[in-house]
């Protein structure tokens, strides 16, 4: 007689490939609370005036203050800035110039914190104080909007650096 061979069936687990996902490292720094700071900015753009289009540029310096709340890695808050400087340009056709000396912004911010870095987007109201006249020293306020983004990097527990880009539009003002 022949020998019989018997085995139990073995079921092997099927491996499924991992599904694509964005994995954000847990924040180890807390970005919640009040903050204040100063900045220097370079501005460039164009202004459409009743006397013609002009290119404007210049440097401003100012102060900002804000408040953020952090939930897990997500940071939400608000910020206000004020800047003083001389941003302007010449209107060749009228032998005159356009200048603005004060700007203000009130913005909302939302971002993601990873360790000592906060990457954020921002948008809000822009206010510009300028002198559009060629004959007097009257100043006007123009209102518009601003939006942009940036990154804050903690240098120490109470000091951070910032890089930011913002677009501001005053429409017909």
Q: What does this protein structure show overall?
A:
- It is a single chain.
- The chain is mostly beta strands.
- The chain is built from no helices and seven strands.
- Strands 1-2-3-4-5-6-7 form a seven-stranded antiparallel sheet, with no helix packed on it.
- Strand 4 (96-114) and strand 5 form a beta hairpin.
- It is elongated and about 70 Å long.
- The termini are far apart.
How is this structure best summarized?
With 173 residues, this protein is mainly beta. The protein has strands at residues 33-49, 52-71, 74-91, 96-114, 117-131, 140-156, 159-169.
Core attributes:
173 residues; mainly beta; single chain; 0% helix
Question: What fraction, in percent, of the residue positions are helical?
Answer: under 10%
Q: Based on CA inertia axes, which overall geometry fits?
A: elongated
Alpha-beta classification: mainly beta
Largest sheet: 7 strands, antiparallel
Percent of residues in β-strands: over 45%
Across the major sheet, the strand order is 1-2-3-4-5-6-7
Give a count of the beta strands, DSSP E runs of length 2 or more.
7
Distance between the termini: 105 Å
Radius of gyration: 27 Å
Instruction: Give helix and strand order, one letter per element, not per position.
Output: EEEEEEE
- The low-confidence runs, each spanning 5 or more residues with pLDDT under 50, are none
Mean pLDDT over the residues: 80
The number of helices is 0
């Amino acid at each position: 007689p022949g020998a019989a061979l018997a085995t139990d069936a073995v079921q092997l687990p099927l491996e499924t490939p991992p599904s694509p996902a964005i994995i954000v490292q847990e924040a180890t720094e807390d970005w919640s609370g009040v903050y204040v700071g100063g900045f220097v900015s370079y501005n460039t753009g164009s202004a459409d005036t009743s006397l013609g289009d002009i290119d404007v540029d210049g440097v401003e310096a100012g102060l900002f203050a804000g408040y953020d709340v952090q939930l897990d890695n997500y940071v939400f808050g608000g910020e206000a800035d004020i800047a003083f400087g001389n941003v302007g340009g010449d209107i060749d056709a009228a032998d005159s110039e356009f200048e603005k000396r004060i700007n203000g912004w009130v913005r909302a911010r939302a971002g993601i914190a990873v360790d000592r870095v906060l990457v954020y987007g921002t948008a809000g109201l822009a206010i510009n104080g300028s002198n559009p006249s060629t004959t007097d020293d009257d100043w006007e306020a123009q209102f518009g909007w601003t939006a942009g983004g940036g990154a804050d990097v903690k240098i120490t527990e109470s000091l951070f650096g910032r890089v930011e880009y913002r677009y501001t539009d005053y429409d017909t003002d």
